[in-house]
């Protein structure tokens, strides 16, 4: 039952680099040896270590910090699962990418994907270990899908913004996207599953439009 929760992040990173990497001027993985260690292996190790720190901070939030109300459910999802988590994760990948600022854009994009995939993968494992045995569709499918959309878009947006191409729009979309994800979780946990699915579909549409605007359209001009 938890297979999609576990594999969705690494699978999304691989698919994203396969199809979007060429738009950054790459596509193939860096050669084995030093190039791959710098862009893939070392960032993955740092991401795993950073995950421990961020997850401890996540666990430090009191269980009753957010009331059971639409507003409380929204803020809890926004802080614990989406904007709060991805903001800290993005700081980690941004600091790492500073060390390869002279590398091609596709390698910077790959580094952002690696960090996000490792940390979201470990976050999913943490959800499994710390959760109970009563899984909902939101936990197994909707939330992983929302995280996958954010994983892909944050990697695109950080790379685009860091290379001075539509940076303002990229940052704006990075702030708006988690709001849709948090609304989706809020609707589901407030027993409005239909609205949750509609919100996730709107988030997917927003993500597709933003990726097209920031990355695909410029490559065709």
Tally of contiguous helical segments = 8
Structural class: mainly alpha
What share of residues is helical? over 70%
The string of secondary-structure elements, in order, is: HHHHHHHH
Low-confidence stretches: none
What is the 3D form? Answer: globular
Please count the beta strands (DSSP E, at least 2 residues each). 0
| Distance linking N and C termini | 44 Å
Main pleated sheet: none
Please state roughly what percent of the residues sit in beta strands, choosing from under 5%, 5-15%, 15-25%, 25-35%, 35-45% or over 45%: under 5%
Mean pLDDT: 90
Rg, Cα atoms, Å: 17 Å
Summarize the structure in short.
The protein is an all-alpha fold and 221 residues long. The protein has helices spanning 3-20, 34-60, 70-80, 83-97, 105-130, 137-162, 167-189, 193-220. 79% of the residues lie in helices and 0% in strands.
Describe this structure in words.
With 221 residues, the protein is mainly alpha-helical. The protein is built from eight helices and no strands. Helix 6 runs antiparallel to helix 7. The longest helix is centred in the C-terminal third of the chain and has 28 residues. The protein starts with a helix and ends with a helix.
